[in-house]
Amino acid sequence: MNKRIVSFIIAVVVLGIITVIVIDFNSKRPDKLGDNPWKYDIEEYKVVDDFLIGYKETKNFPLNNAKPLAIDVSDGMIWLAGENQLMVITTAGQLQMQSPLSGTATAIEVTTDAVYISYEDHVKKYSKEGEQLDAWETPGLNCAFTSLAASESELYVADAGNRRVLRYGFDGNLIGEFEGKAESAAGHGFIVPSANFDLVVNSFGELWVVNPGKHAVENYSKDGRMRGFWQKGSMSLEGFSGCCNPAEITVLSDGSFVTSEKGLVRIKVYDESGEMKTVVAAPEKFKEEGLAPEVAVDADDVIYALDFDRNTIRVFEKI
Q1: Mean pLDDT computed over every residue of the chain
Q2: CA 238, 295, 144: angle at the middle one, nearest 5?
């Protein structure tokens, strides 16, 4: 075959390959792509119909230079603990007491007689005047304490680092621990992908623990036997989506749960069986892709949300 013909054929083939590459490249430019059918779109879940919202925001308190990381409401006061500081303010927003802390608090639980504050790997006990009374020993390695809850006889501590619940006497004696494994097929242990691991004791003395990786809220006896649970993994308004939700919980006087979510931030109320009763605050009230507000309630079931993104306490009352 003539060399000129061979060279011509090779040139045509090379040109064809280059043309295909250029066309393919241009077709995949961002401005040339069509809609992505797999796009993670949460826009439709941000809007909540007004008739589903049973609370209104009645007031809020900007916290200015203070940076609290934990909240509890007790004795008609709002108790806040954070970086090197314990604060007490009235429900009208007036500062009543301020006391230094040696470290960064992760949770606070106020009982009739004392104030318990957790740090990364230990708990300290304080008087109501802010005086440190005791510092409890660290219970091993890899601790990441995230939540406290008191019953009449003991203090429960959520340890996200070791995916366990610790049981303490009020004297600081470690009574025991459990990892959330039940005897039935429902038992799966606590799945804690991040430092969102909350627990609460309701007015009936029942311990409820969030299993965040399962989007579940689980009821345990004091010695760690699972007695029941409810689970709501769903993108819908009635469920919990993403990683580690609900991130925060508390309970109303009738045993209903107040839940707070991160990512698609919203606050809701569920009955004891896990059926959603109402929305407290819709996503439009919060920063997009924000942190879950920590929630607490007072004796009148008024809900207090510590909004970390706005550094504000926001108060919600039933309509």
Answers
A1: 89
A2: 100
77-113 per-position pLDDT tens digit:
999 999 999 999 999 999 999 999 999 999 999 999 9
Domain boundaries, the chain: 1-34, 47-318
| Four-point Cα dihedral 213, 215, 217, 220, nearest 10 | -30
SS3 content of the chain, % helix, strand, coil (to 5): 10, 45, 45
Domain 47-318: give its CATH code. 2.120.10.30
Q: How far apart are CA 158 and CA 208, in angstroms?
A: 11
**Could you tell me which of 71, 81, 84, 284 has the C-alpha nearest to residue 198?**
71
- Helix H or strand E segment including 33: none
| pTM to 2 decimal places | 0.85
Beta bridge partners, 128, equal none
> Which position has the token pair 């409890």?
136
Give the residues across from 257 on adjacent strands: 251, 270
User: What is the C-alpha to C-alpha distance for residues 258 and 58, in angstroms, rounded to an integer?
Assistant: 17
- pLDDT for 19: 60
> What is the torsion angle, in degrees rounded to the nearest 10, for the CA atoms of residue 99, residue 102, residue 108 and residue 114?
-60
Strands (E), 160-256: 164-168, 174-178, 199-201, 207-211, 216-220, 226-231, 248-251
39: left (phi over 0), alpha (psi -120 to 50) or beta: beta
What are 168's two structure tokens? 């303490």
